[in-house]
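From the shared-data thread, chain only:
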Amino acid sequence: MIINNDENIISLNTTLKSHVYAIKDSLGYTLIDTSFPGKGKAIIKELKRIKINLKQINKILITHSDIDHIGSAKYLMKKLKCKVYISQAEYDNYLTKSQKIIDELPWFKKFIIKNFLLVNRDHLTIIRDHKIDEFEVITTPPHFHSYGMVMYLYKQMLFCGDFIQSKCNKFMLIPENHNLDNKIYLDFIKKFDMSNINYVCQSHGKPLPAHPLWAEFIKTL
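Structure, as tokens:
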């Protein structure tokens, strides 16, 4: 699904339950997130079908390390031979833990740590700045078992991971039990400045224009 013709931004049809976005920038193409495990081949097939040159994909930006966002990163990293960016907080929290602590984590987090983060730690690129090429990096409150969720702003298009979701053409909060601290999350939502953002591309639900929908959503909180 084409989100913005002018900016060459596409939401891949094969990852509708947890969106993967392909963005054409001045360096080639950037992918946002990688969806569930096992989606890699379908992602590659769709990229070829919409005539994106795989050699032009120069990086994958991960919003956070939940299984539906980083699940196919290992496959895509090897297939595309591109950089995969992950936040410093995610790296620190999951790659410096003892085996005992890892064993106590939920199954899906153990899967990610053992099958992706640990085996690829030397090939991951840690986000150390507030900008990656043309993408501004925005840190959000911790989400669920992810400690370093980030959003990416590209030319007034916000790629926000699980910061927010949508349903029936309306913005919606993510469930309370998906936040480590729901009060901090709500405060962040209410204070977040959407004035210079035209479109919100979330991971779950249809991407939506920011205006006037965001202001209408904020009034309901």
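Helices lie at 40-49, 67-70, 73-80, 88-95, 99-103, 107-117, 182-191, 213-219.
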